[in-house]
Amino acid sequence: MTKTAMLLVATLWATALSAQTDRSMKQELTLITIEEHFANPRIAEADARWRPKTELTDEQREVMAFFASRMNLTEQLGDLSEKRIPHMDSQGIRMQILSYTSLIGDYVPAEEAVKIACEANDLLAQRIKEHPDRFRAMATLPLADPEAAVKELERCVKELGFVGVLLYGQHKGHWLDEPQFLPIFKKAAELDVPVYLHPALINPQVQQLVYMSPAYSAVTGAELSSAAIGWHYDVGIQAVRLILAGLFDKLPTLKVISGHWGEGIPMFIDRMNHQLTPDMTGLQHDFAYYYKRNIYLTPSGIMSDINLRTMVELMGADHILYAEDYPYEQPSDFYDFLMRSSLTDEQKQLIAHKNAEQLYHLK
Q1: Exposed, middle or buried: residue 243 (CB in 10 Å: 0-12, 13-18, 19+)?
Q2: Three-state DSSP class for 177?
Q3: Angle at 348 between CA 347 and CA 350, to 5 degrees
């Protein structure tokens, strides 16, 4: 055999061995994803009954039509079998932790918000029973009545078997670091379930002042103020406010999860650490101490090698969980992104499923 032939055979053998290793690793690396959404028409209709009827401008109609065309995922949101499970299998996802895709509107009266939240959680619990080995859930709470929200969180965990709670950044202009919401975080810490901070539509005045401009279209401004960056900054600031409010001095075991690689905050940890010193804030430790101890991150379907490497460097692989943001994000390389990364096998396993198993107490 000539040298060229021998080299060719060696190359083919190495390629085959590499493919075999990849297949073997793919069987070993199973994923648990934690920002995966669900919706039910009954809940959407119950919320919509209270939505104020206002006359829309032409610009508002244009924006509404744009988002309606992009977010027409009702069937996928409500499906737990026909499309969702095949998709999960194709990406090596063993389990999704589900949450409702939209919050109960600020316009819903407190008493009705409690009813809607309880029904929403009951419906999701029933659906999970169809595939108990593939799904878990996070609770939806009626923030209009914090006392009822505490009771509902306890019911969801102890009676329905839910493993966490998902909260949005504000309620009627009130941020979650305000005293009326502290009992919710206390209950989450007591139950040892993580709190997922999820983006929501931002304050209309902030949207108009910061993101809208006559220099570009209303659709562009609306997108800029929401999925492009606006609502990410909004909920990222919420995590910062929780730290500065002393929440983690009061509740040192509380675990809070921030999606989309931390919603822009991690890159400023050192800066905030330098500026927001304990002698100013009155906290027991510096800013970075709390962020790196109590906050956990997910990619939320943003498959960025730079973000992955940076966040592992900043936070450690033990503070990153995996999330796809299904069905809004369905990256074709969701599994391979983690597989092909330069992380160690142990780091990959932590991010893929071990961290989720620990935080959500999954067997």
Answers
A1: buried
A2: coil
A3: 65
